[in-house]
Structure to design on (190 residues):
């Protein structure tokens, strides 16, 4: 269990922060940027949930929890040393990706096929979900970039990739099952 009695520690006042293994790195370190962006995604998702209800809100709540798992995974380098850790680090697992895929398939099965690209917008929930989609794509790019120089759990990258797809399909659902999607009209303003 996490206990936070004191919110500020002053340990980051000189521009460093601690990773999950205790190592101190610059606050602009690629790993910190990657898990910081997953936190930003979680905050944008919190805004989307203001407009959600029922099953959609429950699914978004599960994703928010997953994003904390993902941040915990990214903040802990040295995957090879997991077995030697005093406490087993929290890592993303395949079943979290599988759940997203199952939900995408269920949502998409009720939608008409796309005949055009969609512009972000429509309902308030759909617009927020499109914002979540773009932040998820950025988080994915940063995790992939990090993986070029350091070890990253592959389930993190797969989850972020699938999550942006989830947000896209969910935005269509939020737009009256795609009936209120805002369609791109190529060259409309020429």
């Amino acid at each position: 269990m996490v206990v936070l009695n004191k919110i500020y520690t002053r340990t980051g006042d000189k521009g460093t922060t601690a990773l999950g293994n205790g190592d101190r790195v610059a606050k602009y370190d690629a790993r910190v940027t990657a898990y910081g962006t997953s936190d930003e995604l979680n905050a944008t998702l919190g805004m989307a949930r203001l407009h959600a209800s029922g099953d959609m809100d429950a699914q978004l709540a599960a994703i928010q929890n997953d994003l904390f798992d993902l941040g915990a995974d990214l903040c802990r380098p040295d995957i090879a040393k997991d077995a030697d850790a005093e406490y087993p680090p929290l890592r993303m697992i395949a079943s979290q990706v599988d759940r997203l895929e199952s939900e995408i398939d269920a949502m998409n099965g009720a939608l008409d096929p796309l005949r055009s690209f969609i512009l972000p917008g429509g309902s308030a929930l759909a617009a927020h979900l499109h914002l979540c989609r773009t932040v998820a794509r950025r988080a994915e790019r940063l995790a992939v970039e990090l993986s070029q120089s350091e070890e990253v759990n592959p389930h993190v990258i797969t989850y972020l990739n699938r999550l942006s797809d989830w947000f896209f399909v969910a935005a269509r659902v939020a737009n009256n099952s795609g009936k209120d999607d805002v369609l791109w009209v190529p060259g409309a303003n020429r």
Remarks:
- The chain has a mean pLDDT of 93.
- The helical segments are 30-49, 54-74, 94-109, 124-147, 154-174.
- The radius of gyration is 19 Å.
- The chain has one domain: 20-179.
